[in-house]
Amino acid sequence: MEGIIAIWQRDIIKFFRDRPRMVGSFSMPILFLVVFGIGMGGSMESLVSAGTNAQNFNYTEFIFPGIVSMTLLMTSIFSSLSIIQDRDFGYMREILVSPVSRVNIAIGKMLGSASVALLQGVMMFVLLPVLGIGIDLVSFFQVLPVMFLMACAFSSLGLLVASLLNSMQGFQLVVNIFVMPMIFLSGALFPLNNMPGWVNFLVTLNPVTYGVDLMKHIMIDVESLNAAVREEMGLNLTFFGQPVTITGELFFLLGFTAVLILLATLSFRRANS
Amino acid sequence: MIELVGLTKKFKHNEAVKNLNMFIEKGEIVGLLGPNGAGKSTAISMMASLSEPTGGDVRFNNNSILKNPAPLRKVVGMVPQEIALYDDLTAEENMQFFGRIYRLRGQVLKRKIDEVLEQIGLSERRKQVVRKFSGGMKRRLNIGVAMLHDPELLIMDEPAVGIDPQSRNYILETVKRLNEERQMTVLYTSHYMEEVEYLCDRIYIMDQGNLIASGTKEEIKQILSAEKTISIKTNRLNDRFLSLLEESPTINQVVAGEKEVTITVPKEINMFPKLINLAEKVELELRSVEVKTPTLEDVFLHLTGRALRD
């Protein structure tokens, strides 16, 4: 346990010391917020209103959970990838030679990356007043554990990827293969209706899909939207034809995290032998 | 204390360690020498349970660590070749991190940090981030974090590479003191013969994955007891002179530098008249001819045909 706490705490200290990284990791989500929220917001709101007779549909409010999810995903994955540097610079040899088990090293790193991602995600909420979006305190405290669970799932994925990479050279590949497709195939930024079967399959397996959906259900008053808007905006999520429940989504994320942390530990053990 | 039995590591395209047998007794400082690519780091990795051998065994207190590495991991400290410190953490935070990895906490951890920082001469710098440290200070701290949990066995993989002579002396003195005061067992790998000669009780020499010599310093130097080494300095070396030396039946080995050539000959042979004769034949000016007592470097040269730092 002491080893898990030490590895977790080191990531937190590093986060607060590395201000350029803190600021830099906001740039992409803010860019997306500007492009999608301001650039496409007007058109999307007109289309939805025209198709559904809905009043007061706020597209920025719809994509904000998606942007936060994107921040969580990027920070978690990139933070987990720092384990490659640990390996290259020899820190990992010092840790691996110690009595801390491989599983605890993986869990400590996963929790560290997830905590950093959560902090970064929470900082995005500072933008809410600027965007004209309101959130009550109850919803805010409800969304925090969901964000942390999402960050744990993404960090586990990052750890698995890191254990398969030999160097940071593959970093860009990871962004292209995992991060961006996971964002675009989650319904975070636009609804994914009438997609081909194989795309739907990927959407169904994508953990971001369920994280974003959970966040939307907490942050947006989904029930107050009319049925046509919910349908149009992809808020009636299904899992292989079955309607998705909040409990189901939570279990999916928990299961995803558990399986990936196990795979990451096994892969990590193999990579270091 | 720890024994390597027929240890072998094969990778896809090469065999990094071939049937290595060695042992370290409690309280010894043992040197492991070899040029780059000799297989030292791979051997150390297997010894420290960081990687699994493809053959053979590592036995710690007569028990295989391949099946159960936990007893070894509790008492081993590792100083890697790289500076493995977090640049954006202070010296004290680095020590806290590595101490906690070894399950130290609270007052015990605090007391150990104070003690080790004092030993490595960094007490005054404890609150400074490591990024601002000199290379020598980083090396000292690198050793300090491995000493926090009072390891019974300290594995040091070239700990004094790339630092100033003052810091190197400090490190050597610290290792010597740890061994004398706490009977800490040390495995020390290095490129530098003088470090190993100063510190180590026994020495193992590896080259291309093979163990090519082992024993005490004196035993290893005995390898050359039937021979002597002669260093010849000239105004300029030419190929004809080298060819004549190589063709001479009394010379066992010729190693040429830029303006210096070292030959190994049987102890009883007087080479001076012959060398003068050969030099005159090729119109070469001899600057000096010096008979040397064999050093570990000479033994290494003799065994591998190349200098240790090549």
UniProtKB/TrEMBL annotation, chain A:
<keyword id="KW-1003">Cell membrane</keyword>
<keyword id="KW-0472">Membrane</keyword>
<keyword id="KW-0812">Transmembrane</keyword>
<dbReference type="Pfam" id="PF01061">
    <property type="entry name" value="ABC2_membrane"/>
</dbReference>
<feature type="transmembrane region" description="Helical">
    <location>
        <begin position="173"/>
        <end position="192"/>
    </location>
</feature>
<dbReference type="InterPro" id="IPR000412">
    <property type="entry name" value="ABC_2_transport"/>
</dbReference>
<comment type="similarity">
    <text>Belongs to the ABC-2 integral membrane protein family.</text>
</comment>
<keyword id="KW-1133">Transmembrane helix</keyword>
<feature type="transmembrane region" description="Helical">
    <location>
        <begin position="250"/>
        <end position="268"/>
    </location>
</feature>
<feature type="domain" description="ABC transmembrane type-2">
    <location>
        <begin position="20"/>
        <end position="271"/>
    </location>
</feature>
<dbReference type="InterPro" id="IPR051784">
    <property type="entry name" value="Nod_factor_ABC_transporter"/>
</dbReference>
<dbReference type="GO" id="GO:0140359">
    <property type="term" value="F:ABC-type transporter activity"/>
</dbReference>
<feature type="transmembrane region" description="Helical">
    <location>
        <begin position="105"/>
        <end position="128"/>
    </location>
</feature>
<feature type="transmembrane region" description="Helical">
    <location>
        <begin position="140"/>
        <end position="161"/>
    </location>
</feature>
<dbReference type="InterPro" id="IPR013525">
    <property type="entry name" value="ABC2_TM"/>
</dbReference>
<dbReference type="GO" id="GO:0043190">
    <property type="term" value="C:ATP-binding cassette (ABC) transporter complex"/>
</dbReference>
<dbReference type="InterPro" id="IPR047817">
    <property type="entry name" value="ABC2_TM_bact-type"/>
</dbReference>
<protein>
    <recommendedName>
        <fullName>Transport permease protein</fullName>
    </recommendedName>
</protein>
<feature type="transmembrane region" description="Helical">
    <location>
        <begin position="62"/>
        <end position="84"/>
    </location>
</feature>
<keyword id="KW-0813">Transport</keyword>
<feature type="transmembrane region" description="Helical">
    <location>
        <begin position="21"/>
        <end position="42"/>
    </location>
</feature>
From TrEMBL, chain B:
<dbReference type="InterPro" id="IPR003593">
    <property type="entry name" value="AAA+_ATPase"/>
</dbReference>
<dbReference type="Pfam" id="PF00005">
    <property type="entry name" value="ABC_tran"/>
</dbReference>
<keyword id="KW-0067">ATP-binding</keyword>
<keyword id="KW-0547">Nucleotide-binding</keyword>
<dbReference type="InterPro" id="IPR003439">
    <property type="entry name" value="ABC_transporter-like_ATP-bd"/>
</dbReference>
<dbReference type="InterPro" id="IPR017871">
    <property type="entry name" value="ABC_transporter-like_CS"/>
</dbReference>
<dbReference type="InterPro" id="IPR027417">
    <property type="entry name" value="P-loop_NTPase"/>
</dbReference>
<dbReference type="GO" id="GO:0005524">
    <property type="term" value="F:ATP binding"/>
</dbReference>
<dbReference type="GO" id="GO:0016887">
    <property type="term" value="F:ATP hydrolysis activity"/>
</dbReference>
<feature type="domain" description="ABC transporter">
    <location>
        <begin position="2"/>
        <end position="233"/>
    </location>
</feature>
<protein>
    <submittedName>
        <fullName>ABC-2 type transport system ATP-binding protein</fullName>
    </submittedName>
</protein>
